[in-house]
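Tokens in:
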């Protein structure tokens, strides 16, 4: 039975750029985080992909492959706005059951919509509505299948602007040409684990018994994968975030210790505001600096570019900034030629499960909590940087909102 209609926007960031600037339509476009030769493409239009340019292709390599490529610095607030418009457009035709990323969403098919002919008509209607209300450059590939995993695989089969139906009778025959890595969540490490179990092709994966997949996945995830591949219906899983953080590729004029420090201060203040808005306390912080050596890039970890600390549950910006300062002085300040920085808060505890320390006031909110809440409120009312800790002053125009494909940023706290 057909239960899911999976909508995947093609080359999303680049398509938005082509939509807002008609002069870019039909031209190879690469979207980059910062305008620097040492940067890389975070998205490429289909015209650029024809030259072999992909997500992660370095700027210098992209210019070599396609001298006529147009490179554009990402406009993440615009991408979030288009995402919201896209969700609304799809929702006018069929209820959106879940948003999986900035460019992917799923609708559940029920009743007569489960019939192939009606499901296809709904998909075509969605394409028409997106074209009409979001933009003619916003092409989508839609997969119709028995569940979300198979719907995603179906949407990837014909790009751009495809429409693929994968019925129960098509499983697994129409999937055998794919590699296991085509499945969302099967990354390089899982591929290695599958290969150790002599599972190399999709046919091997389907032939593997349930208990073998249980072992490869290290638990119930393998059992679930066995069922999902065979079309069993399942609902969205509610997950609790384990970490929260930000990272930023430094522009050329900020690639020094002072610039890295200033940006880290700004990232920490943004993360603290998100922490409070999402209703969490943190019990640890990790900070990393990525550098560039003469022979190329270094992750920074082996060279002492990462430090972390654990502490009692907190969501206080001032405290987190003090922790950042302590971690910075451990050696990150001496890391040569920084090109990117990042910080992560971990050990997240929901506010409802927060345990005060012996020294924490028993009142609903301490004076410090009230101050943080007031700063957040003022920034929401009057825009970002209305109030901030001075340590981020030199980086106010840096570290803007960034989109992770599996998380839609909150414009209110991440601008």
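Residues out:
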């Amino acid at each position: 039975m057909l239960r899911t209609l999976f909508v995947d926007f093609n080359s999303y960031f680049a398509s938005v750029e082509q939509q807002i600037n008609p002069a870019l339509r039909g031209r190879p476009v690469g979207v980059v985080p910062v305008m620097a030769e040492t940067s890389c493409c975070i998205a490429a239009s289909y015209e650029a992909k024809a030259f072999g340019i992909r997500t992660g292709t370095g700027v210098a390599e992209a210019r070599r492959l396609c001298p006529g490529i147009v490179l554009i610095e990402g406009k993440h607030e615009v991408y979030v706005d288009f995402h919201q418009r896209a969700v609304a457009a799809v929702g006018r035709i069929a209820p959106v059951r879940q948003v999986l990323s900035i460019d992917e969403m799923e609708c559940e098919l029920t009743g007569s919509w489960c019939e192939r002919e009606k499901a296809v008509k709904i998909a075509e209607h969605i394409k028409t509505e997106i074209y009409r209300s979001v933009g003619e450059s916003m092409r989508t590939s839609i997969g119709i299948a028995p569940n979300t995993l198979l719907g995603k695989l179906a949407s990837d089969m014909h790009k751009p602007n495809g429409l693929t139906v994968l019925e129960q009778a098509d499983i697994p025959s129409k999937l055998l040409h794919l590699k296991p890595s085509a499945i969302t969540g099967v990354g390089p490490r899982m591929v290695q684990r599958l290969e150790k179990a002599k599972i190399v092709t999709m046919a091997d994966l389907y032939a593997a018994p349930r208990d073998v997949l249980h072992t490869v996945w290290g638990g119930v995830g393998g059992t679930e994968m066995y069922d999902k591949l065979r079309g069993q219906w399942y609902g969205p899983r509610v997950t609790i975030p384990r970490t929260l953080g930000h990272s930023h590729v430094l522009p050329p004029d900020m690639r020094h210790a002072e610039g890295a420090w200033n940006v880290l201060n700004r990232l920490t203040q943004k993360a603290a505001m998100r922490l409070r808005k999402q209703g969490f306390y943190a019990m640890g912080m990790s900070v990393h600096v990525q550098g560039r050596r003469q022979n190329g890039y270094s992750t920074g970890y082996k060279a002492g570019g990462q430090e972390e600390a654990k502490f009692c549950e907190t969501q206080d910006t001032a405290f987190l900034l003090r922790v950042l300062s302590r971690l910075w002085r451990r050696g990150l300040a001496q890391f040569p030629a920084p090109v990117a920085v990042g910080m992560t808060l971990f050990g997240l505890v929901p506010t409802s499960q927060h345990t005060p320390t012996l020294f924490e006031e028993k009142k609903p909110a301490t004076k410090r909590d009230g101050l943080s809440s007031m700063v957040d409120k003022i920034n929401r009312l009057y825009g970002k940087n209305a109030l901030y800790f001075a340590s981020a002053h030199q980086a106010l125009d840096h570290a803007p909102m960034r989109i992770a494909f599996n998380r839609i940023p909150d414009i209110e706290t991440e601008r």
